Amino acid sequence: MAERLIHILPEQVASQIAAGEVVERPASALKELVENSLDAGAKAISVEIERGGAGLIAVGDDGCGMGREDAILSLRRHATSKIRDAADLSAIRTMGFRGEALASIASVARLRMVTRRAADLAGVEIAVDGGEVSLTRECAGAPGTRIEVRELFFNTPARLKFLKTVATEQSAAAEVIARLGIAHWRVAFKLVAEGRTVYELSRAASVLERMRQLFGAKVASRMLHFDSQRAGARVFGLATISQDSYPTSRMVFTFVNRRAVRDRVLQRAVTQAYDTLIPRGRYPAAAVFVEMRPEDVDVNVHPMKTEVRFRNPGAVFEAVYHALRERLADQTAAGAPSAVAQRPEPTGALIVTSDAPPPLRLVPDAPTTARAEQRALGLGWGPSTAAEVAAVYEPAEPARDDRAAAPAPAINSGAGSAGSAQVIPFGRPGEKQFPEKQIPEKQIPMYSRLRVMGQLFAGYIALESDDGLILVDQHAAHERVTFERLRAELRAGGIRVQAMLTPVPIELSPARAPQVHQALGEFRAMGFDLEPFGSATLLLKGAPAVFGADGGARLLAEMIDAMGDDGFRMRGGAAFEELLKQLACHGSVRVGRVLKEPEISALLEELDRTEFKTNCPHGRPVHIQWNRGLIERMFRR
Ligand code: ADP
Ligand code: MG
Predict the structure, then answer these.
(1) Cα–Cα nearest to 224, from 275, 284, 184, 279
(2) How many angstroms is it from 80 CA to the middle of ligand 1?
(3) Which atom of ligand 1 is nearest to the CA of 100?
(4) CB atoms < 10 A from the CB of 84, how many?
(5) Which of 149, 159, 379, 624 could anchor a disulfide with 57, C-beta 3.0 to 4.6 Å?
C-alpha cells in the first residue's frame, strides 16, 4: 500500500474541475469571453456561434490586445491582470478578476487565440488543445483579440451529455449578449448564430437606445426613466409604464455596478414596485442599474459572478423599490417622484362625522394638496412638456470618455504595459444617460383636462385628447381612487368612519354568523362601526366615509358575502390590503351606471389627484386609447 493517499492534482485536472463551475454551458463560456473583451476596453465585439456554441464560440474585439508573454500567461490558471492581492478583492471594478476563465475554457475545448497590441508590429497566435499548448507563432492581424473555442466539452463527455438543444443553447447565448449589451450600451455588439445575424447593435448613446435596438421602438417608447439616490445607492434605468406587462420576467434586467446579476432582493423590489399596478403573475420590462461603493457588495460569491451579496440587502431593496415606486406614482412625462401625495391629516382610528350623507357619493371630497395644484399648473402633458423634460434630463455633455464619442472603433494605445486591461468605467454623476429621445411617446394623460365626449355603454367615459380617443373604465378608475384614499387613511391612523343617521340592523345568516363575529375586528378596521345585537344581528352605526354612510349596509352585506367559509384569514398588512382592494371594488361605481356630467368631471379630477392612476388595484388598465393616426389610417386618410 502506498505511503501517501493525498496528492496534488495536475494543473490540467484542476482546471477541468474549475471549468465545471465556470463553464456550465456554452453561454457561460461566451459570457466570460465577452467580459474579457469589455475589460480590455473593446468598443466593438463580434460573436459567432455554431451548434448553439458547442461547435464554435468565436469572440473578436478591438480591445487592448496582449503581448506574447501575457497571451501565454493568460491561459494559465490564476493568471489575471486585474487584481494583485486580496485587498483588491474588496474594490473590484472589472468584470473578471478570478483569473480562471481562459484556463478553464482551454481545458475543456480546443482554443485558438489571436491577439495584438496596437503598438506591436505583429500579433501572436496560440492554439491549445484540451489544456496543452500545441502552437505559438507570430502572426499578422488587426489590433485586438480574437478567441475561438471549438468542440466545447470534447474531453468531458459527462458535460456534453447535459447540453440542451441547439435552439436552447442559442437563446441562452443571445440572452448573455442582451444582458451585457444593456449594461454596456456604448459598445457595439454583433451576434451571428448558425450563419444568421441575431443582433447587430451599433454603439448606443443611451440605455434607452440600446433597449430600442434590442426590443423594438414599441417597447422602448413605453418606458419611463428613473434616477434616484438613497442610502448610498444610486438606482437608475428604465421600466415600462404600468399599462404594459409581460407574461415572463425575462425582460427584467438587473445590474449591480454594471454587472448583470440575478438576485432575489432586486427581483422582488422590482415586482413589488408594480404591486397593484399590473396583474399578479405579470411582469414589467425593466433595466435597473444599481450603483454602490464596491465595498458594499461582494461579487466574489459565485464562480460565474452572476450572484452578489449585499452588505445591507434591506437598504438595497428600499432604494430600488422606492426609485421605481415613486416614478410609477406619477407617470406623466414630467413625473417628479413624490412619495407623500395626499396624505390626510393624522386622525384617530374612528372619526365619527354626523353630516347627513349626500344622496350619491361617487366622488368623495378630497383635500386639495399642494401637489395636485402643482400639477394643475402645467406639469401635465402638453406640447411644452417634452421640451421641459428634455431640459431636465439633458445634463451638459461631460467632456470625458472619448471612447463613447469616437465615431469609429479605434484602439486604445493601452500604454503597452504588460496585460494592461482597460477598465470599463462605471457611470459617473452627470453622465448623459437620458437624452431627449428618452421621453415616452405615450404619456399618461391628465384626464380632467380632456374634453368629455360622453359615456359609452354606461360604463366608459369617452375623452378626446390631442392625439386620440381615450376610453376610461369608470369602475377601474373609481376603484383606484377609493383604494388610494383608503390606503392613505390607513397610513394616517385609520379608515375614516361616517356615522349613520340611524343605526341599521343587519341580519346574519346562521351559517355565516360565527365567522362574522370572529371578524368584527377586521370589519371595524375597514371602517364599519358595528355592534353585536344578539347572536344573529349586528347594528351598523357607521360606514367607511369614502363611500358615504348611504350604501354602508349594502357594502357590508357584499363584504360578508365575499368573506367565504373560513372568514378573512388575515395574515398581516398585505392581507389587510387585499381586504381594502375588495372593499374598494365593492364600494366603487359599477359599469352599468349612468353618470351625470358633474359626476364624470369630479371622478376625472379625483383620478388626476391619485397616485398610480393608470391601473385599478387589481392591475387592470384604467384607460385604453386609439391614436389619431390609427383612426385616420382606418379611414384610409
Ligand atoms: P480574469 O478575467 O479573471 O482576469 P481570465 O482567465 O478571463 O481571467 O483572463 C486572464 C487574463 O487574460 C485577463 O486578466 C486579461 O489580462 C487577459 N485577457 C483575456 N481576454 C482578453 C482580451 N479579449 N483582450 C485582452 N486581454 C485579455
Ligand atoms: Mg475573465
Answers:
(1) 284
(2) 6
(3) 6
(4) 8
(5) 149
The stretch 198-217 carries a mean pLDDT of: 93
Looking at ligand 1, which residue's alpha carbon is closest to its atom 27?
36
- pLDDT at res. 6: 83
Q: Determine the distance separating the centroid of ligand 2 and the alpha carbon of 100, expressed in angstroms.
A: 7
Residue ID of nearest Cα to ligand 1 atom 8: 99
32 lines ligand 1 (CB under 6 A): yes
Q: CB neighbours (10 Å) of residue 429?
A: 9
User: What whole-number distance in Å separates Cα of residue 31 and Cα of residue 227?
Assistant: 28
Q: Whose CA is nearest to atom 21 of ligand 1?
A: 36
Ligand 1 within 6 A of CB of 101: yes
80, 88, 113, 117, best to mutate for ligand 1 pocket (most atoms within 8 Å of CB): 80
* Tens-place pLDDT, residues 520-565: 888 999 999 999 888 788 999 999 998 887 788 888 988 888 777 7
Residue 219 has pLDDT above 90, yes or no: no
Of residues 4 and 65, the one with the higher pLDDT is: 65
3-state secondary structure 438-450: HCCCCCCCCHHHC
The terminus-to-terminus CA distance of the chain in angstroms comes to 93
DSSP states of 290-355: EE--GGGEE-TTSTTS---EES-HHHHHHHHHHHHHHHHH--STT----S--SPPPP--S--EE-S
pLDDT computed for residue 338 by the predictor: 33
Q: Which residue lies with its CA nearest to atom 16 of ligand 1? A: 81
Residue 571 pLDDT: 56
Exposed e or buried b per residue across 249-267, where buried means at least 16 C-beta atoms within 10 angstroms of its C-beta? eebbbbbbbbbbbebebbb
Task: Say yes or no to pLDDT of 424 above 90.
Answer: no
Measured in angstroms, how far is the CA atom of residue 96 from the centroid of ligand 1? 7
Instruction: Provide the 3-class DSSP secondary structure of residue 615.
Output: strand
Q: Which residue, by CA, sits nearest to atom 2 of ligand 1?
A: 96
Q: Which atom of ligand 1 is nearest to the CA of 37?
A: 23
Give residue-wise pLDDT tens across range 7-49: 887 877 777 777 667 788 999 999 999 999 999 999 999 999 9
Q: Confirm or reject: Cβ of 63 under 6 Å from ligand 1.
A: yes
Whole-Å CA distances, 119 to 72, 140, 146, 383, 406: 18, 13, 17, 53, 19
